[in-house]
Design brief:
It is built from three helices and no strands. The protein is mostly helical. α1 packs antiparallel against α2. It is flat, with a radius of gyration of 16 Å. It starts with a helix and ends in a 13-residue tail after the last helix.
């Protein structure tokens, strides 16, 4: 893929993510976020953006685990 296509998809993905945050309807906002993530994943999986891949991996490792938020049974 040419570099300008990668940049275009990154901008589209970021724009869709921001529109999803600002949308009043939760379903449409979630759909916009999913499409934004899909656009960025196309760049990550099909491009040559090693710096972006490493940054995404670092972000994923930095996020807290789901087990941290689970509550144990109270007796």
């Amino acid at each position: 893929m040419p570099w300008w296509m990668d940049l275009l998809l990154l901008v589209v993905g970021l724009t869709l993510w921001l529109l999803g945050d600002n949308h009043s309807d939760d379903v449409i906002g979630l759909l916009e976020k999913i499409l934004g993530v899909a656009a960025v994943m196309v760049v990550l999986l099909g491009g040559r953006w090693l710096v972006l891949e490493v940054a995404t991996l670092g972000l994923a490792l930095w996020l807290p685990s789901a087990a941290r938020f689970e509550q144990g049974p109270r007796g």
